[in-house]
Specification:
This protein has 15 helices and nine strands. The protein is α/β, with parallel strands linked by helices. A nine-stranded mixed sheet has the order 3-2-1-4-5-6-9-7-8, sandwiched between helices. The radius of gyration is 18 Å and the shape is globular. Bound molecules: alpha-D-ribofuranose (RIB) and calcium ion.
Length: 326
């Protein structure tokens, strides 16, 4: 039986210079017979929310899929945080390749879609989140029963035993909206966390992009145009030399193929008050002194190791070969 999922995402393929990787993850999900995508919801993160909404809608249309797309509103879960993260929602300077759709075009909105779809499919639905957790926190506010409807959230989030990528303490998706992450980790919904610890083992480089770019199909040319600047302008020289990380694609893969990773149970709390550590995912494996004494009940299973070859071959077959043969 297929696993029913909603993908919550901040897709930037279509916005030159934005991180294009969410769209590879969505393509991986679309080409995975193990999954049925009930909807795609977009959130402020890699790009302002109307750009993410536009990019997701374009992807769905270009690949001829009948998948509803709904968008969140600009801004973070807490207004106080919004002030500190304003620039995330205001980066208008990047060149846009897909037609812009105003957020107002979506009457329902992402949080209501998530809450309603979860209720309609109660006990038979999972979320795969590959962006900040704003929409999920807002859906929890709309329906306090939401945790009883959703079986699991597989999320690309956090850095468990390694340093963050946006600050030394925090990974981008959690840092972008820590209060929403705190709400979700405290919701009681079982979480499969896919942190930087394993995401950093994955790569997509120039060689793979060239293969896709050799296909004259307009969609492959669009992928080539969108991804090329990210490989060139990323401030991280290692990304330029060795390729970008397939963070979000790995989360999608682990939503239906967890056997390719090793997980360890942890009680994960989110730092929301740190001067230097906002958005840190503090992972208690009950191995610290306090953990051994108080033994908090785990709220997450955290991926800490990966069969990289198994992931690479899945990604090659379902994303790269798919595009090369389009
Ligand atoms: O930290 C990695 C996450 O933020 C991914 O979801 C990716 O899209 C990035 O921008
Ligand atoms: Ca993302």
């Amino acid at each position: 039986m297929k696993k029913k999922i909603i993908i919550d995402t901040d897709p930037a393929m279509g916005t030159k210079g934005g991180d294009p990787e969410d769209c590879f993850a969505i393509m991986l999900a679309m080409n995975s017979p193990e999954l049925e995508i009930l909807g795609i919801t977009t959130v402020q993160g890699n790009v302002p929310v109307e750009r993410g909404f536009s990019n997701a809608t374009y992807l769905v249309e270009q690949l001829g899929k009948d998948i509803p797309v709904h968008t969140g509103k600009p801004g973070t879960y807490s207004q106080d945080r919004n002030e500190k993260r304003k620039w995330l929602g205001q980066r208008e300077e990047m060149e846009q390749l897909t037609p812009i759709l105003p957020v107002e075009n979506d009457k329902k909105g992402a949080p209501a879609f998530i809450a309603e779809t979860a209720k309609e499919n109660s006990g038979d639905i999972e979320l795969v989140t590959i962006g900040p957790l704003t929409n999920i926190a807002q859906a929890l506010d709309l329906d306090p029963e939401l945790p009883t409807h959703i079986n699991k959230i597989t999320m690309m989030a956090g850095a468990s035993t390694v340093q963050g990528n946006v600050t030394p303490a925090a990974e981008f998706n959690v840092w972008a909206d820590p209060e929403s992450a705190a709400r979700v980790f405290g919701s009681g919904i079982p979480i499969r966390m896919v942190p930087l610890d394993v995401c950093h083992k994955t790569r997509f480089g120039r060689e793979q992009l060239n293969l896709i770019g050799e296909n004259e199909h307009p969609f492959c040319q669009f992928v080539q145009k969108s991804v090329d600047p990210w490989l060139k302008i990323n401030p991280n020289k290692e990304i330029i030399d060795q390729g970008l990380h397939l963070y979000d694609s790995l989360a999608v893969a682990l939503s239906f193929m967890p056997e390719i990773a090793d997980f360890k149970k942890a009680y994960v709390s989110i730092e929301t008050k740190g001067e230097f550590t906002d958005g840190q995912t503090v992972s208690e494996f009950n191995e610290s002194i306090m953990g051994q004494i108080f033994k908090p009940k785990p709220n997450s299973e955290v991926a800490l190791d990966l069969d990289v070859e198994a992931f690479n071959s899945l990604f090659k077959e379902r994303v790269i070969d798919f595009l090369v043969e389009l």
